[in-house]
Amino acid sequence: MSIEAMPPEGALRSDVPVLEVEDLSVTFTRRGEQPTRAVDGVSFSVSAGETIGLVGESGCGKSVTSLAVMGLLPKRGVQVGGSVRLAGTELLGASDRTLRRLRGSEMAMVFQDPLSSLNPTVPIGTQVTEVLVEHREMGKREAATEATDLLDRVGIPDPARRLKEYPHQLSGGMRQRALIAMALACSPRLLIADEPTTALDVTIQAQILELLRELVVDSGTALVMITHDLGVVAGLCDRVHVMYAGKVIETADRYELFARPRQPYTGGLLASVPRLDAGRGVPLTPIRGSARDAIPWAEGCAFAPRCDNAQDDCLTEVAGSTVPLEYDGPGRELRCRHPLSYPQQTPAGATASGAGR
Amino acid sequence: MTAASEPLLRVEGLQVHFPIRRGLFFDRTVGHVRAVDGVDLAIDRGTTYGLVGESGCGKSTLGRAVLRLVEPTAGRVVFDGTDVASLGGEPLRHMRRRMQMVFQDPLGSLDPRQDVESLLSEPLQAHGLGGGKAGIATRVRELLDAVGLPAAAMRRYPHEFSGGQRQRIGIARAISLEPDLLIADEPVSALDVSVQAQVVNLLEELQERLGLTYLVIAHDLAVVRHISDVVGVMYLGSLVEQAPADALYDEPLHPYTRALMSAVPVPDPVVEERRARILLAGDLPSPANPPSGCRFHTRCPWRQETRCDDEAPVLRELAPGHLVSCHWAEEIRDGVLRPKSAEEVAATQGVSVRATGADGGFEPDALLQGVDEPIERR
Description:
heterodimer; A: alpha/beta; eight-stranded mixed beta sheet; four-stranded antiparallel beta sheet; 12 helices; 12 strands; globular; B: alpha/beta; Rossmann fold
């Protein structure tokens, strides 16, 4: 059996990030309607063995970003701009054949909704072995054995029996694990996980996160983790990009981000999550409204209507330009005119004055 | 009004078993899935009882059995002095007015072809409440106001709302009949983070205003801790630990509770790296064939030879209101027993870590053999 063909140029150069996304934009157009810009100028890169997180609420464009990277968006009515390079190979505008070869073997994706991403009329086994037969040129029997191993690896009990079952016979968590098994089938270099553990129980989530962590460390897979769960991000991602209404509004390494969120949105997200290690009765501070209240970026900061820090110049009419994503200290970028500020770092003095003595 | 000391809801020895049927010509029952297997709990008026556990532990079935949306196999559900299990027909329908449910999936639980006004007035009409057309219209407006939706929402359809707003509609529908007990099955798990907090706050606010009693069923321990007075932890159909929220989170006594809590990610990388994780071996065993003795023994890092395997622990009260079903709770609390790693547990348990062993090497159960056989055939 031959090893599957690698993308020809620059395939094994380790200095090239596995995935580079530059100024990606996705616009949905529909006749008779205003075009919707779902993703607007998103740039990030992932190296082998690195995990980055795309965080945001539903509707912020994080899933569309991942679909654009995978080349899964429909051709009609969608304009994708910018550049997406997998190990140096440009994916935007690549032929369907190339993409087909890469998807599943070099880059794989775990989707958000396990029921609708599995074919309800085909047994799980066939769906898992399909990848193996297609990309690893395995025989049917061999593929079935491999599929059993894969299901076992992601923690599905009694995998041999499960292979013959249909998606509706599995629990939500099991379906998601079957999907993860399918994604891992060819040990891809890039794994995009779109809310992979949202449907799972915490003890299983812990197992899956451990599995993903192992995958990143052992096989050097580059992982793009798309999630809204800040706890998952805190434990897994090296760098975090917070998205809102199609744009990255804050980028930081995870320690910085959680210790000192600068964008009021990031701060608001952190304040609205109940924490297991916080006492009872500590009130939650939700962000006002919902993601639907966002205004177009052209009119100012999209978060301004929900923001407690918002001032007049957050709107374009006053400030004259869209809020840019700017350098904000080493390794940080920020898109905000009135960020949350923190007192200068003098730990001893800060606690003394904080205690109010 | 009954005595204030009497809990609003009392569940005694509740069991829900689903039969497993096999056979093409002869419909024979080959076993039972013991979804809920002997649960006792009591919820005081005006308090919140949080029920946590992994999916498949029977927490949702328990919630539905309380409302008799599924028939309990055995046991009693006493709601305000009346045994709900003994009711039928009209009296049951009237009883259900006082116990309502908020479902997990707000889009799936609302009819896409009904507008909000019709959705909210339907329960009132069904129970003949609200006092005619005008009365119902006023009531619907009040309800929308109570859950923080604009009156303009009346003429809209569920798909026009965001997830959080839909859940508000679901809650409005549940409180429209002024129930005493609200069973919320995963009320926020389908919502966005920033919106979850809004709905949690709304539930708390409504409880204060309307004096509601909640049974909150959730898998998110952080949410349950935030909202509950008393928390019960379920594993494979039975309660393994029950305690006041703070006591439970300060000092979890049951090994399963400890593992569960250590698995919850905390949004703080510093804490994430420091905190000890107890990874559990394997998966939830099949409720059709629960392990002998303590049901958790197949995954328990603190398992002690033979006693845990043979003897089913009972719920014991170790501290006021703190019930635990573990033989070794005191020893584990005092650090006399040391936990084993997940790998060690898996090794000592052999294949039995797998609920329904694929290789079937470990005392293959006759029932499950029968289930497996036709599938093994090539």
